[in-house]
Amino acid sequence: MINAEYVLFAGVLGLIAIDLLRRRLSVSKDIIHWITLSILIAAFASEILFGNLNVNFFASIQYTQFINGFILFLSLIIYGFLFADSKEFDTLIDALFIFAVLGATLVVLASNFISLIISIEMISIASYGLVFFQKSNSRMEGAMKYVVVSFLSVIIMIFGVSLIFGGAGTLSFSSISNVNYLPFISGLALVIVGLAFKSTIVPFHMWAPDVYEASNSTITAFLSSVSKAAGLVAMMRVFFFALPVSSQFIEVIFVILAVATIFFASFLATVQDRIKRLLAYSSIAQAGFAFIGIALLNYIAVSAAVFYIFTFAVADALVFLAYKIFEDNKIIYKNDATRMFSTSKIATAGLFLGILSLAGVPPTIGFFGKLAIFVSLLSKGYIYLVLALFVIILFSTFYYLGLLREMEFSSKKVATKRNFKLKIKEALIIILIITLFTGAAFAVF
Amino acid sequence: MIQLIGLLLLPAIGILALILRAATNARISEEKIVASVAIATAFLFFFGVIIGFNGISFPIIPSINFSFTLGLTGISIPFLLLAVIMPALGLWSAYKEINKNKTLFYILYMFSYLSMIAVFISTNLILFFIFWETILISFFFIIMFWGEKEIRRKASMKFLIFTQFGSLTLLGAFILLFVYTGSFNINVIATSIQTIPSYVAYVIFFFVLITAFIKMPIFPFHSWLPDAHVGAPTAGSVLLAGVLLKLGGYALLLFGIMLFPTIAGSLQIPLIAIAVFTAIYSTLAASAQKDFKRLVAYSSIFYMSLAFLVIMSLNYIGQNGAIVLIVSHGFIVGMLFVLAGLLKEKTGTRDLDKLGGLMLKMPLYAFFVIFGVLATLGVPGLSNFPGELLVFIGAYAAYPLALLSLFAVLIATNYYLSAVKRILFVSVPKRLAKIKDISPWDAMQLAMFSIFIVIIGILPSVIVNSFNFVV
Question: Do B179 and A398 touch (CB under 8 A)?
Answer without folding.
Answer: no
